[in-house]
Amino acid sequence: MSDTQLEVRLQPRARRDELVGIRDGVLVARVCAPPVDGEANRALCRMIARRAGVAPTRVTVVAGKQARVKLLRVTGIEYGSLIETLGVAEQGTESSTGVR
Questions:
Q1: What angle (nearest 5°) sits at the alpha carbon of residue 62, between those of residues 65 and 77?
Q2: Which end of the chain is flanked by fewer CB atoms within 10 Å, N or C?
Q3: Count of domains forming the chain
Q4: What is the DSSP letter of 11?
Q5: What is the extent of the structural domain holding 11?
Q6: pTM of the model
């Protein structure tokens, strides 16, 4: 089984849950949940899991739990397949691949 690590810039307390796109190799996401007691992180993981078609337990925040830019691990899907499944487009300059 493969693991993919994905950098995500998260905006909590947004009007709606959405994946905006990939800017400079970082996925930009917005969630309605506030950044209190990990609610925004859980909302982000649920949204990624739902869009990727994997179980919510397969998406975890491995770094940046209290930061805007987070590192997520998605188990059971390759990076290219994940990006395709999420339906996000590259925007801006590609300074990195978003994978570590």
A1: 130
A2: N
A3: 1
A4: E
A5: 3-89
A6: 0.85
